[in-house]
Write a structure and sequence with these properties.
By secondary structure, the chain is an alpha+beta fold. It has a single domain, classed as PPM-type phosphatase domain (Phosphatase 2c, domain 1), CATH 3.60.40.10. The protein is 29% helix and 31% strand. The strands form three sheets. Strands 7-6-9-12-1-14-13 form a seven-stranded mixed beta sheet. A five-stranded antiparallel beta sheet has the order 2-3-4-5-8, covered by helices on one side. A two-stranded antiparallel sheet has the order 10-11. Helix 2 runs antiparallel to helix 3. The chain starts with a strand and ends in a 17-residue tail after the last strand.
Amino acid sequence: MMLQKWKQCGAAVQGVDHIHANVPCQDNVAYLQGDGVHAIALSDGGGSRKFSHVGSLCATRAACELLVKKFDNVYSRMQRIAVGDSKGKKMLLALRLEILEAVLDAMRAEVNEERTLYDFGCTLQFAAVKDGRYIVGHVGDGVIAALYQRGLDRRVEVLSHPENAGAPNVTFFVTDHDAEAHLRLSFGECGQLEGILMMSDGPEEVLYSAANAMHANTQKLFDNFKGVKCQEYEAALSKFLSGNIARHSFDDLSLCLLYLETADQTALTPAYCEELFEGVVASNQVRRVSSYTWLLDSSIPAKGEDDLSFLRC
């Protein structure tokens, strides 16, 4: 029997330049789950903005909260836009503004005499999955990639490229007056999708190129998550960023992953099996996705408790 579960993980580390200048890490990552939604977000604070580390923190948290709360609403609206609804352009603009307003509202709560909205300038990447569907959004630079399994072919492909007006050290922020023009949205069915990876422009320098897309070793960032607890993998990601990527980029560095782990029930250790089943106590949290595979989802509120011993390791 095979067991599947969506896992989330992220890490952000201070860049070499910021360590020497005693500037806080301006990158932030966040992840959240609830009601069957698994959301991740990453934001790179602008180096020219005094409190961008606060802005990036607000942006990632607000994006995840919005996706968990309104996934179905956003997805259905994007479907209507995609099929050529007569009001498509207005609907798309309204959706972009609504998403950005949720982020900006979170930032406005942090404005005071010393900090303005302008000071919170940052990029934003976000993604979420629910019931075999996904939503992705992106403002600014950095890269969003996805892991696909298509038959025997398993590869990482770019979902959203960086936008920086064709020049290094130039990008777009969610606080810009025309941010809605730079919020790129996409959606679809997961199908052969196994994971989503986000990175700020620091790791982008190493793992991505416009000509050749993603570095071949990027797939290992997903594969190494298999069988590893989230907290342990966050430490591994931090070590990878500060020990490997920092040799090539002096910028702040961040990665965030959403990964659908598929595990053979008989090959799991008792300790890892315990984490896999943490919070899964009712049959409504378990869904059969094939004749031999079950999807576990502790983000769905349990309706009572059931005997799930047939699934246990």
